[in-house]
Specification:
Length: 161
């Protein structure tokens, strides 16, 4: 599906505020509500708009500590990589998993209650795995992210910023 500047505007606005009603979104973009709704439906049906998520304060969920775990595997067969990835994705503490090229095989972003929870997680679910050669833990003091993906295809959207 080819996107035009209006599609990019829709995506930009929804990335910044996924709770916009269709009427509000249409007004921001200067479209008729019916046209706006049809475009949003098309973006969803083509897999471009993949969902909306609420941003929740981690402490409200009992999360007192986040960390990045750099993991090196003993070997790199497809079976070992796939099995390990399935294992770490099954852990409720895992927020993001990155399979990397380079000296680190996996970078895993985790959220835990406290330092004891972190220690138990590492000892029980990472270091006991036969495919794990080495882990290195980095505590996250602060975490920031961009509200939207960069748009490399439409310079008109960039000019409007």
């Amino acid at each position: 599906m080819e996107l035009d500047r209006i599609d990019y505007r829709i995506l930009k606005e929804l990335q910044n505020n996924a709770q916009l009603s269709n009427k509000e979104l249409a007004a921001i973009i200067d479209l008729a509500p019916s046209t706006c709704l049809e475009r949003v439906r098309r973006l969803k049906s083509n897999g471009i708009l993949q969902g909306a998520h609420a941003k929740v304060n981690p402490s409200a969920m009992g999360i007192g500590l986040q960390a990045l775990i750099a993991i090196k595997l003993t070997r790199h067969t497809r079976e070992i990589v796939d099995t390990f990835q399935l294992h770490i994705l099954s852990l409720k503490e895992v927020l993001m998993v990155y399979h990397l090229a380079g000296s680190t095989d996996f970078l895993v972003h985790i959220a835990v209650c406290d330092d004891k929870h972190l220690r138990n997680l590492l000892l029980d679910f990472f270091t006991t795995r036969p495919e794990v050669y080495q882990i290195e833990t980095s505590l996250i003091f602060e975490h920031k992210s961009r509200p939207e993906l960069p748009n490399f295809f439409d310079t008109e959207v960039d000019k409007e910023k």
